[in-house]
Amino acid sequence: MELKPGMSALVTGGASGIGKALCIAFAQKGLFVTVVDFSEENGREVAALVQKENKKFHRDLRVQSSIFVKCDVSNADNLAAAFEKHVQMYGGLDICINCAGIANKTLVYDDTSDGARTWRHAVNVNLVAVIDGTRIASQIMRSQKKPGVIINIGSAAGLYPMFFDPIYSATKGGVVMFTRSLVPLKRHGVRVNVLCPEFVQTDMVEQMSRKIIDSTGGYLKMEDIINGAFELIQDESKAGACLWITKRRGMEYWPTPEERRKYMVNPNKSKRMLTKNIYPSIQTPESFQKIVVHTLSHNFRNATRLERVQLRLPVEPHSALVKIIYAGVNASDVNFSSGRYFSGNTKEVASRLPFDAGFEGVGIVASVGDSVNHIKVGTPVALMTFGSYAEFTQVPAKHLLPVPRPDPEVVAMLTSGLTASIGLEKAGQMASGQVVLVTAAAGGTGQFAVQLAKLAGNKVVATCGGESKAELLASLGVDRVINYRNESVKDVLKKEFPRGVDIIYESVGGEMFDLCLNALAVHGHLIVIGMISQYQGEDGWKPKNYTGLCEKILAKSQTVAGFFLVQYAHLWQDHLDKLFDLYASGKLKVSLDPKKFLGVASVPDAVEYLHSGKSVGKVVVCIDPSYGQVVAKL
């Protein structure tokens, strides 16, 4: 929902704290605001401030641009009357903020009263009034048959226990689960979301121990809360969403995709399944082109050839035929063409020849087998199975990942993005407040690693070679860019990070691996996702001995973890959804190398370009340039 002058909002608890800040923020957008609070003096002051801001948007109004309604939200009649006054004044309701809340000074298990003025009252204000306010607001919005948004103000205390006020924690937890259960209201045009900030400097929070607040990183800025609320209002995809805001990690949605999988009845069904078919019908040709590995060699051009083969129809019962629009290029393409990813001796691997090349691609489903009912023709999908360097490919339908659009940016999110997202979480055990080093950071996967580490609230260090790459990394928010062509990576790490680096996302290998291991902090995690410096050479990839590795990691309780994406297939869809949501909301940038590679025949050129060290961002091949142009216009 786009906030426009003339819309109206009702805010309970609007006389102070978060409620007051939201009232003024709405006024700065030209919205009419009803301030609902028990404090008449503070409430009228806020209403006056709103009117002052509104003069910038509205002149010669016949009605006041803001009114104050004194209300005890725990009194059902008072609350209903407040909503009624708002509708009478402004003719409807676009946004409702249920923000009223109070803390409990006495621990409930030490309370000897009947609770009428203590914990029972807190339950009524913090939870019952939110439920009632949501009920009334949703009924008004549905009756006017216009879209509406309700934001319930929860708390981080609703996501984890708050031992010094169990009642506050219980009520805010109730607000969270109540809100998350209201997703069905979206069908009626009403979206209800919950905002869960940690500590904000308000009168209520200032009564708490400063030690507790400091242990979480200190107070959040009120600006962060406003931005979070506006995101929940303006993002049409958010319904039943819980946005958690902390000083340590910034803004993130809770629960995580992995947590959702634990309770979902059908965890493998993606929300992307419902993508509408807006793509032109695909005419299946009699034949198509693809890249085939015909001899084992780390020289991709020598190992492969372009072949034209007959298209086999009908599609097998449990499979789908996909028209590839874009395919991603990876450093490990040369390992695949040399047979390094197959088990067995050289003779056994050679017996597999010829085999199709390419790890990843996006495209459109052109046809499905008779037993496939969860994917329809015309659905945009991503795939990470062998054979994406082709105009068409037939794969088991269960391996397809529905995506919003078959764009090159989505290709970058596949092997490159998923390796970063899952690798940092699983192998790196990434939290917040850490120092994270990413090597070859301006490449396909490095660009994701630096941004995800930054979004998690970490200090990010990145290595690269070249000014254009350094500029890209600086634009992505990297705290310290080390251009190894101008300065020594070893010297910088030793001087500026004497205590070591907590997490290292390493893809270069060789001397860089040795350097990283020596720079790893106590309890640090070094994630090995590849070793591109060792892939090329006269004899291809040769294993290297790392003398003293065990002794080093033992002495500092360190972890050196290998990460191979294919072993985490059960997490692909959830993490892909997360990456696309971050990209769609503008929180994640996707850098594509500007050099164009068009058609299947250009694949060997693209692979060699990637290994030249000149690429900046993800290298992508447009398999069908003519269809790619059509898709781009949709």
From TrEMBL:
The keyword Protein transport does not apply. Keywords: Oxidoreductase. Residues 304-621 form the Enoyl reductase (ER) domain. GO terms for molecular function: oxidoreductase activity. Pfam families: ADH_N, adh_short, ADH_zinc_N. Transmembrane segments: none annotated. It comes from the Eukaryota. Homodimer. This is Enoyl reductase (ER) domain-containing protein. It comes from Urochloa decumbens.
